[in-house]
Amino acid sequence: MRSARLVIALFAAVALSAPPASAVSAPPDVSGHKQTLRSAAPKGFHIGTAVAGGGHHENQPYPDPFTSDSEYRKVLAAEFNSVSPENQMKWEYIHPERGRYNFGMADAIVRFAKQNRQVVRGHTLMWHSQNPEWLEQGDFTAAELREILREHIMTVVGRYKGKVQQWDVANEIFTDAGALRTTENIWIRELGPGIVADAFRWAHQADPKAKLFFNDYNVESVNAKSDAYYALIKELRAAGVPVHGFSAQAHLSLDYGFPDDLERNLKRFADLRLETAITELDVRMTLPASGVPTAAQLQQQADYYQRTLAACLKVRTCKSFTIWGFTDKYSWVPVFFQGQGAATVMWNDFGRKQAYYALRSTLAKRA
Ligand code: G3I
């Protein structure tokens, strides 16, 4: 038992450290004097990250890194001009009991963003996951539920009026097959699909300047799911519903190919006069037994990061590009995908990977 633990501990220790410098060839860096992502970014372009850590600390108080890791805060401020609360604006965090809000964690992030001249992406108002038990098990009437959602959106969006640039109003409402999540999503199940339009209307009422988005994963390509968004958004816009944006999360994996038609897909949404964005990019991989990615994996990862950014930069309305955490130290990936990890652009000690330099050079070339 003890030796099994030791093996696990050793494995973890190895996985935490960067490979020897010799194992990784340095990429050509054309960033010049622009030594951070935000300074390399073209004017008006938002380069963002999720804050502040995730599933990795399931058994520790939350949010830990944001409040207590000073190096983390330093890098967060220096490198990014956009932040997305990773969990802190989700229902279970911000509205833990009926009629009681907990704004503390979200407020702290919004304050930090202001101090550091960063914009904020609000995430999220309507989702099938991370809802509090009082809501999911509440046995409410349709009229009550509708009022609960209206009140939540008015309160949360209203509180951050003028401080949140983009809101993920509706998150992951379609399945990969392009069907509405009529069973998992409490709002759609209990109130019908029309509630989606209402959510956008209420959010717009609460903050007329915030840009309101549909956000999902596996919508990087032209496929059944992104087609479903395309059709729905067209319909909603024709009906005058205030939908302003469509975003692809982009949780990519080296175990799958790169979505080559990303640019083409984003462009068709841009052609509907919508803002587009990449909101949660990370590139995970199956780790070798050593726990340390190979040089080839790191190279391929850098390539995925670079191509995702390049696609966004080529689409006129894609002005917001967010990675889902910037250091492996706090990435959600290893907790959710056994044997996988190293998905972000920095090692645990904030040492930069090739993927980081690939992003910086690509930004600098377009600045
Ligand atoms: O904070 C609590 C802690 O108090 C509690 O004791 C513990 C027990 O389970 O849970 C802790 O919460 C965890 C939370 O992360 C913070 O660490 C949750 O269990 C865990 O499920 C949660 O994971 C988050 C995941 O969404 C849940 O769906 C990840 O951090 C977050 O990165 C991830 O983000 C999602 C986006 O919102 C939407 N797109 C996909 C993306 C990745 O799954």
Automatic annotation (TrEMBL):
Catalytic activity: Endohydrolysis of (1->4)-beta-D-xylosidic linkages in xylans
Highest taxon in the source lineage: Bacteria
Leader sequence residues: 1-23
Enzyme class per UniProt: hydrolase
UniProt keywords, alphabetically: Carbohydrate metabolism, Glycosidase, Hydrolase, Polysaccharide degradation, Signal, Xylan degradation
UniProt cross-references to InterPro entries, sorted A to Z: GH, GH10, GH10_dom
Residue ranges the record marks as coiled coil: none
SMART domains assigned: Glyco_10
The EC number(s) this enzyme carries: 3.2.1.8
Domain GH10: 67-362
GO function terms (MF aspect): endo-1,4-beta-xylanase activity
Metal-binding among keywords: no
Record bears the keyword Hydrolase: yes
One example of a Gene Ontology biological process annotation: xylan catabolic process
UniProt similarity note: Belongs to the glycosyl hydrolase 10 (cellulase F) family.
Protein name: Beta-xylanase
